[in-house]
Amino acid sequence: MVIDTGSELSWLHCNNNKKTFVHNSTFLPIHSSSYKPIPCSSTTCTDQTRDFSSPASCDVRKLCHVILSYADASSSEGNLALETFNIENLRIPGMVFGCMDLSFSSSNSEEDSKTTGLLGMNMGSLSFVSQMGFQKFSYCISDDKDSTGVLLLGDGGASKYPLNYTPLIRISSRLPYFDQVAYTVQLEGIRVSNKLLPLPKSVFVPDHTGAGQTMVDSGTQFTFLLGPVYTELRREFLYQTKRVLRVLDEPNFVFQGTMDLCFRVPLTQTKLPPLPTVSMIFRGAEITVSGDKLLYRVMGEVRGNDNVYCMTFGNSDLLGLEAYVIGHHHQQNLWVEFDLAKSRVGFSSFIKCDIIANQILNMGPTD
């Protein structure tokens, strides 16, 4: 399942058709004696879905029907239901989740095909965190070379790792572009190596409509910046890499519709050249992105004897999003802690997830 701090509802791919063959990652509610669909007249449907991206509705069976949309332009739809969840030695009846159709689509269909569902981890009333009553959780997202990721619910002994905390930003009034149940932090600046981008702090502060919040979102792949900030980062990164990277001179090529700074790297080149670091500065903490995390090889795109690589920061304006989003690609091999009791998010320095797994979970050495 995808662990998504940017969304509320947990869901599984479902199939109610006895005659249709489905793969092992599909949940079959007809085989479950504890599965109960939620009617659209239920207060769960009418009241607790108010923070969803679209209002809940009634389907032809008078069941609660939801459509969920995500920051990367993917979506899913299906029905709300109750089910018993078994987590280690806990048996939790009556958990609200989504039983979703297989029509889920996104820009990364290969990853979608591996996905059983999604674990909604934001602060909404129906999120997994809220329904379980957790006051703290943390994770380490592994990189592409290491499949050992860690999710801890509660303290779990993770306090041995030094963290720098930044406070969660909350706005009590409802604003059209402000997600009240997201993990919102205050971005204060961006530095490329030692050069702080010449931007006023006001460009990072949400305006009177709520546009401009900064969300920590493990369910979105890359990081997105509002247009003026993206443009300035693009300009400075280009300047600092002009001697080591060859720009892809194709104005119409925009990776995933939001990333228009791409480069040509020879097929024979096994390592990227030394690159400047990019640091996102928050109130009390920062995340530094370096090396391979700055450029992403676009599969299937070859120009002559060159691969195509694109910078892993996208333009929110091109996505139609009025926010900054810190995606999971730039959270890899960081220890990230969400402390709801103290209303803060903590980031560690660079670590390796397999070491975390070994030390905290006592899993033993990994191969």
From TrEMBL:
CDD domains: pepsin_A_like_plant. Keywords: Aspartyl protease, Glycoprotein, Hydrolase, Protease. Residues 1-348 form the Peptidase A1 domain. One of its GO terms (biological process) is proteolysis. GO terms for molecular function: aspartic-type endopeptidase activity. InterPro entries: Aspartic_peptidase_A1, Pepsin-like_plant, PEPTIDASE_A1, Peptidase_aspartic_dom_sf, TAXi_C, TAXi_N. The active site is at D4, D217. It holds the Pfam family TAXi_N. The keyword Glycoprotein applies. The keyword tRNA-binding does not apply. PANTHER family: ASPARTIC PROTEINASE PCS1 (PTHR47965:SF77), ASPARTYL PROTEASE-RELATED (PTHR47965). Belongs to the peptidase A1 family. This is Peptidase A1 domain-containing protein. It comes from Papaver atlanticum.
